[in-house]
Amino acid sequence: MSTFKGKIDEIPGISVDCFLPNNYDSKAFFLSHFHSDHIRGLYEDGADFIIKRNLPLYTSALTKEIIKRKNPVLAEQVKEMDIKHPNSVTVGGIILSVTLIPAGHCPGSVMFLFETKASRILYTGDYRIGVSDVRKFRSFYDSLGNVKKIDKIYLDTTFFLDSYPMFPTRSESMSVISKLITEWTSRDENNVIVLQLSANYGYECLFKDIYAMCKMKIYIDEQNLELYSLIPQLDGCFAIDRHDARIFCKNVPFPIAQRHIRFIKPSAFRWTNSEKKATSLKNDNEGETYYVCYSTHASYEEGLAFINCLKPQQIHVCVERENPVENLHIKQLIHQALSAATRTNEAKRIKLFNVKSQNSIYPISKS
């Protein structure tokens, strides 16, 4: 869950993914995606503040539509940004280039690459990009084909711990989930699936893929249905009548008589390096219960690849944990990753210029 407080230190006058009062001196707001931990304060006093001050709220096309459906009074303030080309905005006299980069977290989720004359800042929001995919994003390269110099990354550190070294791809996880569903439901017409989800949001891709792969609708509670129904990509995924459904989310009423339940728990939190290295795990002590490793956040290995590719000067932790020991460890791992990325950069310079002595290397510029 994001703990980021909204301010980009290097760019005064903007706030990202936070609408609490500490951001009320901002002149422009940015939203990476529409999840509750990234819209804190928006539906308290944040929306009123934005409307009264006539401030822009910049976001992707899909997130704009969600906001307009959820709160039409913000329609005039929400500004869609082009995801194919850099966008130019002026905030407090500063000309700001903003590039939207697909974040791979949920429908409509984006990263923001902010560029001014003084700095280049990447805010990831929640993201997941595969190890082999990070170098494919054209927005990370300049006109000469070199990776842009990033001054600071505001990084999603949800799983930036070496206890979460790697996760299966989302397609691999979905293959397991779809087989668990179809195998069970085809065995007996009274067999049903209950998805035990760890949060009330963030499962848009899961629902969309289940419907696409299994051709079965899902019954969820009214509150979440109201939110998910705002997303056009999920049209048709949900059952209105629970008696017609065979897939349910936890804590929703479903016909229990004559029904046999298989529980599926998609999550990444239990899949530490102490667990079995498999995509799914059946808990025999809990009956027909299956845990499936499923993540919409980057693993530690994916985070390392991201840092090693972009080689930022600094990293800001955007997800702090309740355990201070874990927070300290995250910072230590980030320091190690930055040091390793710097050494890699220096090694490439030596090879390029055929320098024999390490003393001949010039320090990395921070400009």
From TrEMBL:
<dbReference type="Pfam" id="PF07522">
    <property type="entry name" value="DRMBL"/>
</dbReference>
<comment type="similarity">
    <text>Belongs to the DNA repair metallo-beta-lactamase (DRMBL) family.</text>
</comment>
<keyword id="KW-0255">Endonuclease</keyword>
<dbReference type="GO" id="GO:0006303">
    <property type="term" value="P:double-strand break repair via nonhomologous end joining"/>
</dbReference>
<dbReference type="InterPro" id="IPR001279">
    <property type="entry name" value="Metallo-B-lactamas"/>
</dbReference>
<keyword id="KW-0269">Exonuclease</keyword>
<dbReference type="InterPro" id="IPR011084">
    <property type="entry name" value="DRMBL"/>
</dbReference>
<dbReference type="GO" id="GO:0035312">
    <property type="term" value="F:5'-3' DNA exonuclease activity"/>
</dbReference>
<feature type="domain" description="Metallo-beta-lactamase">
    <location>
        <begin position="15"/>
        <end position="164"/>
    </location>
</feature>
<keyword id="KW-0227">DNA damage</keyword>
<dbReference type="GO" id="GO:0036297">
    <property type="term" value="P:interstrand cross-link repair"/>
</dbReference>
<protein>
    <recommendedName>
        <fullName>Protein artemis</fullName>
    </recommendedName>
</protein>
<dbReference type="GO" id="GO:0000723">
    <property type="term" value="P:telomere maintenance"/>
</dbReference>
<keyword id="KW-0233">DNA recombination</keyword>
<dbReference type="GO" id="GO:0004519">
    <property type="term" value="F:endonuclease activity"/>
</dbReference>
<keyword id="KW-0539">Nucleus</keyword>
<dbReference type="GO" id="GO:0005634">
    <property type="term" value="C:nucleus"/>
</dbReference>
<dbReference type="Pfam" id="PF12706">
    <property type="entry name" value="Lactamase_B_2"/>
</dbReference>
<keyword id="KW-0234">DNA repair</keyword>
<dbReference type="GO" id="GO:0003684">
    <property type="term" value="F:damaged DNA binding"/>
</dbReference>
<dbReference type="InterPro" id="IPR036866">
    <property type="entry name" value="RibonucZ/Hydroxyglut_hydro"/>
</dbReference>
<dbReference type="GO" id="GO:0031123">
    <property type="term" value="P:RNA 3'-end processing"/>
</dbReference>
<dbReference type="GO" id="GO:0006310">
    <property type="term" value="P:DNA recombination"/>
</dbReference>
<keyword id="KW-0540">Nuclease</keyword>
<keyword id="KW-0378">Hydrolase</keyword>
